[in-house]
Amino acid sequence: MDGCVRRYGCQLACCRQRLEVVAPMSWKLFLYDWGGLNIALFQAINTGTPATLKPLAWFFGLVGSYWTAPLMLLGLWWWSKSATNPARGTAVRHRLIGFSAAFLLALLVATALKLWFDFPRPPAVLGDLARVIGDKELHYSLPSGHATYAAMVVGALWPLMGRRGRLSLMLYATLVGWSRIAAGMHFPADVLAGWTLGWSCTALAGWLLPLAAPVWQSARRTSAWVWFTVAASAVMTDQLTKFAIIRTFAYGEQVEITPFFNLVHVLNPGAAFSFLANAGGWQRYFFITLGLAVSAWLGRMLCQQRPRLEAMGYSLILGGALGNVADRVLRGQVVDFLDFHWRLAHWPAFNLADVAITIGALCLFLTVVPKSSKGTEAEVSG
After folding, report:
1. What residues form the membrane-spanning segments (predicted)?
2. Catalytic positions
3. What is the mean pLDDT of residues 364-368?
């Protein structure tokens, strides 16, 4: 027994030495080690979790994932539409907008922090001492994406809930954080950083959105140059991110950020889903011509007075189209770098220009749905 204790103590000492190697800077070591408390807490939770609770850890790892964000957005949208009290519906709609803004902000900040810190995950530090549930991850531990997302869910729903609902939200965030430690995916410091980031992004979004509301209201029937500025911003953001990928990653290189998201550097000579990718070269000029023609039509639409949501949709699609046209003119192919996957099933890699086009199309769809529903109601009543 004494021999096992001594051997276990020696293994933990080696783990701390390994941690000091991967995080040599004193401030990094402080964030990650807490004077040995971080590893000690991880060991207590990870090894102290009985095997019977593994399904519970797996479940809260699932419901605390970014993959459930579409369900969260859909649920808030349905709640805002089905609310019988108009004030309640408005409050839910504001939380929906705030959650969407916080989600995008947190995704950007969390990715930047993971790449900047590049802290190792428990299996990389503790080896076989870390009990892992699921696939073993080694890099980009801080902050925990699951804890970040759980904190944003709590922040979005908190004002809408009563006492029991808020207690349930606190329990949800706690169990999501526990599940990441019990599964051997994160240290307690990662979970705490994720909670802090999620709450901070929610608070920041809640502070910024009221400030942006007057600008958004004034843009309802405003000059077309405002929307051309939105399109230009989309083009610049797209090209800057592609430039950073080209300068940072070798062609074909892949860096794992989360269990479901990689940063990659790939080139696509075709369109979406690699359409006409093997056409022989003529497709470059075809897509340049098509992109410029569509952009000219979108620009003409923006020169007319449009409702703000419709104009936002046109401007985002214009920015995304010009971003990919710029790639074909400058490089002959489109640079893609966002790779989402579930285990071995990968969604085709895409870029921020594609994101802008998708969001723009969604804006246009949302402008059509209310008109269609009103037309249907008129036919039924007639």
Report:
1. 56-76, 96-117, 146-162, 169-187, 193-213, 225-246, 282-299, 350-369
2. 336, 354
3. 85
